[in-house]
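Summary for the steering committee. One of the milestones for this cycle was to obtain a three-dimensional model of the protein with adenosine-5'-diphosphate bound, which we needed before selecting residues for the alanine scan. The sequence and ligand used are listed below.
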Amino acid sequence: MSKNKSSESVKVVVRCRPLSRKEESNGPAGGIVQMDLRLGQVILRNPRAPPSEPQKTFTFDAVYDSSSKQRDLYDESVRPLIDSVLAGFNGTIFAYGQTGTGKTYTMQGLWLDPEKQGVIPNAFDHIFTHISRSQSDKQYLVRASYLEIYLEEIRDLLDPNHSNTRGLELRESPETGVYVQDLTSCVCKSIKEIEEVMNVGNQARAVGATDMNEHSSRSHALFLITVECSQPGPDGRKHIRVGRLNLVDLAGSERQAKTGVQGDRLKEAAKINLSLSALGNVISALADGRSSHVPYRDSKLTRLLQDSLGGNAKTVMVATLGPAPQHYDETLTTLRYANRAKNIQNQPRVNEDPKDALLREFQKEIARLRAQLNHRRFRTKQKKEQVDGEAWERDGDEEEEEVEEEEVEKEAEEFVKLEEQRLELENEAIREDQFLLAEEKQKLLGENEKMMGDLRKRQEATEQLTARYKAMESKLLVGGKNIIDHTNEQQKMLEMKRQEIAEQTRREREMQQQMLIQDEEAVELRETFTSLQQEVEAKTKKLKKLYAKLQCTKAEIKDVNDEHVRSRQELEQTQNELTRELKFKYLIIENFIPPEEKNKIMNRLMFDPEEDEWKFKPLVPDESKSSQMKKRPASAVGYKRPISQYARVALSMGTHSRYRAENIMLLELDMTPPNTSALTDGEQNQSPTLNNSPTHDKGICKSRSWYQSQKSITSSSSNNSLAGCQMAAPAAAM
Ligand code: ADP
Ligand code: MG
């Protein structure tokens, strides 16, 4: 991939946790992971290989061994990223590794111990401290969301009701890229509030799971923070920058055993790691740089992280390792995975004035409420001054002066009180006035009552408006104002020094790594040989070095090949099992479902690529398309509904036409049992049933009378009418 000026690679750091007590008691073998902190290298020993086999070495942007502190990792590798987010870049941190290697420990840590707090709490601290120390012309809006991807379904962890129903949907917009539709997002004004959001989410996560450990190792947790900052630019207008931060705790990267499972369990197993294997494929495709297609759409996770991998974001990947010998294979896989991710190039840029900035909406709404309030207060003040008899002078223009808010508010309240008192007094006076007629008194009192009511209503409306205004305004954080910074100068200095040291360590390591590379290249150039013997020695040394490298690479190729074969075998096995299941389903369909039913279903099915699912087309087309359906059948042109041949004939003969289209009623008559006895008997038998029948209403009588008016009807024409009915019935049912 070509490097341009604004592109930068994904930063990859590796962290190894200490041996657990159980692992220590397992044997004296010790860890298999060694780290060179100065060079950022991980050296992996194969516990099954002979000691002569060269160890595997990987180089990363930084490595953290078992004695590393949470704070070190944060200051060196995460702090610069959060600073970028605060400046309006997108940022992503994800923890990748086998279950139990410390992903959650790195991302969240132990909340109660300040020394052991992970990346997320430290980031909260960082963001809000930054806001409290920034200049007062900056306004901030901080929002947080928390979601989980489990079995390829997205669950909103902040909305427990949502988690019961089906998962959330992913949508794509040209402005913001891929986003989750209807995801809850909470505006947070302080560290405490955002911690509360995190807690709520963590609880929702635990509640949904029968076994938290199992669940968390199979699901991906994404905590999203959006920081919007508005600041007046040189042009005098307010500019908004939006930084989005994704904090991702991935599912355990270990292979899910698929052998021997069938049916739903198989599908579940296939789905669990779908997102992770898709992530691997995306990383491979990006790192390779030659493949034109990056399979982002293969899973929900990769779609959500699309920007973070090869797009508009700065990304840090923390790969976590366990030092135990029994996990050698998984550890090696993790290191290879991480090594590949180093080659991904991103193109981060500042998100300046995006259309969907919520902060702008907030600012607009606040300005609108403020104008409304000012207007109301101004009116009240005006009235007060009129009542007070003060000369009200206007300069002619309609502009309302910007008066001190609090003063005006107080004045307005006072005015309302005074006005109430005045009305009360007036009422009193009216009641006591002996010269007024009772009727007049009532009228005057009523008027006053109305005025009082109006006054109160207005006052209430103003209060509501003020409350809304204040609530809106309190959501915006103003630089250096809303949050009190408790740290004193000394602590601040200490913090700064620590950051400087972290920065220096980082630079030193970069230089060391570069020197190592240059050394290897330059050694040949620098060497001058005094004798042939010396030259031979030097060349032999170099040859040996290169030979060792060759062996390493050969071993690596063999390893990768083996792994490839293994994963292919696994895929083949999965395929075989799926094929077997498919055949079983076919068998059922072919033998037990009537072909016409099958065809009906097949015709109604359609594939929804957005949700990756087969769906039924609706039986009844929705409202918007109903106009197509209402087309009249050709047999009904000019009539309310299709009518039978018989009815047409009847119509042309000029008989009673009211029920001409409803000759379906004739069915009643055809149900008459065949006349085997005398006609009179039959009539006697029949009439009571007709009378008792629930369908013996006006309609039927009339239809009968119409029918009977057809004097010349024979039995054959009656048959005709039945045939007509049968013809008409399906059409009428349409
Ligand atoms: P994962 O989330 O990757 O499954 P966890 O974060 O739950 O793993 O870690 C498993 C255990 O290891 C936890 O008890 C955790 O406290 C411990 N642990 C992980 N990393 C470290 C570390 N760097 N230092 C000390 N303990 C750690
Ligand atoms: Mg975990």
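Key point for the committee: Confidence is low (pLDDT under 50) at residues 391-402, 681-734.
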